[in-house]
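## retry 2 of 3
previous attempt timed out at serialization; input unchanged, resubmitting
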Amino acid sequence: MRPNSQALKQKSSHDTEREFGGTLGAICIPGFLPLTVLFLISVSRSPEASVLQWPPSLPTTEQLWDPLAPVLLLGWIALHALLYLMPVGKVSEGLVLRDGTRLKYPINGFHGLCVSGVLLLLFVGLGAPLGYLFELMLPLAMCAIAVSFLLSGYLYVRSFWAPSHALALGGNTGNPLYDFFIGRELNPRIGDFDLKYFCELRPGLIGWVVINLGMLMKEVDLRGSPSVAMILVNSFQLLYVADALWNEEAVLTTMDIVHDGFGFMLVFGDLAWVPFAYSLQAAYLVVHPQTLSNLTVVVIVALNGIGYYIFRKSNSQKNQFRRDPSHPSVARLETIATATGKRLLVSGWWGLVRHPNYLGDLVMALAWSLPCGFSHLLPYFYVIYFTILLIHREDRDERQCRAKYGLAWETYCRRVPYRIFPYIY
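## retry succeeded, writing output
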C-alpha cells in the first residue's frame, strides 16, 4: 500500500486557501500556543497574577512533570473512548460528503458527561483528593500538549493513505508544515470511531468541567468551603458544556466538522487549549479569592442568563431551520433564496446580526470573568481571546458564504449589516 498521489496533484488549486497566516502561522502557532498555556497556568497561581510581568516567572522541571499525570490523562481519554462506543443514545448522519456518502455519528456525549459526574461524586465521596488537580495542572497540560503533537503526527502520516475525496479542501497544499497544522484528512476514522468528532466534544470539553471542580475542591481544602465566585464560575461553565453536549447533534453542521481537516490546530485546541486555558478563572480564584456582594451576584447571574438566552435561542432557530424549514417555529421567518437551492434566514435572531450566537457567547464569556474582580487582567484573558477568535471565525464564515451564495449573500449583508455586535460591528 502506498500514499495516494492524486491528493498531492490538487496542490495548486488550494494554494490560495491558506488560513491562520499560512506557512508562517503553521510554524509559529504550534510553538506559541503550548507555551501560552503553560505561561497562563503559571501566572494564574502566582501572587502577582500579572501577564505583563517581564521576565515571567518560569516553572521548574519538577513542576512540569508528575508520573501520575500521563496515567490520569490517558485513562481519561480511554474512559471517554469507551463511553463513545457504548450503544446508548441515537445515531445521526452528517452532511453529504464529496463522494455522496454521509457518515454516521453516535449522539451520546451527554451520557458521557453524566457518567463522568457520577464517577466524580463517587470518588469524592470515597475521599479522593480531587483538589490535587491544582498541583497537577502543569504536568497534565504538558502531557496534553505531548499527546496533541503525537496524535497530529499520526493523523498527518495516515492521511497519505486516504482517498482524495476524503481530504479537506484546504489541507492538502503539499506544504508539510501547513498541512500538519491545518489537517489533511477531513474525517479520519479507525473503523467507525471518528477521531475528530470524538475529540471535539468529549475528553477536553468534559475535562474542562472536571478541572473546574478540582479547583473548587482545592478551595474547600484551603478555606473550608467554596466561595460564591467559584460556585458561579463552575455553574456557568458547567451549563455551557452541558448545553453543548445536550445539543451535540448540532456540531455535525459546524465549520470544524464540515470544512476543517483534523490536524494540530483542532487536536491541540480540543485536548489542551480548551481544558487548560478555559479553566483559568477557576484556577485564578484558588489563589486570589474574591468576595462578591449580593447585588454583584445578581447582576452577573442576569448577564450570564441573557447571554445564554441569546446563544441558545439563536442556535436553536438556526438548527430547526436547517432540519425542517416548514416547522411552525421558523416557517413564518423571512428568507432569501440562493442559487444553491438553500435559503438564508433574514429575520428572527438572524435578522438582528449575522451571528447572534457569537454575541450570546461573548456576553457569557464576560459573565464568567466578572466573578474574579478587576484586580488583574488574567481572568479576562478568555473573553479577550474569544472575541478575537470569533471575529476571525466570522471573517472565515463571511468569505466562505460569499463564495458559496454569491449575490444572495450580498443581499443578505445589505439587509443585516451588523456582523456580531448591533450598531458596532
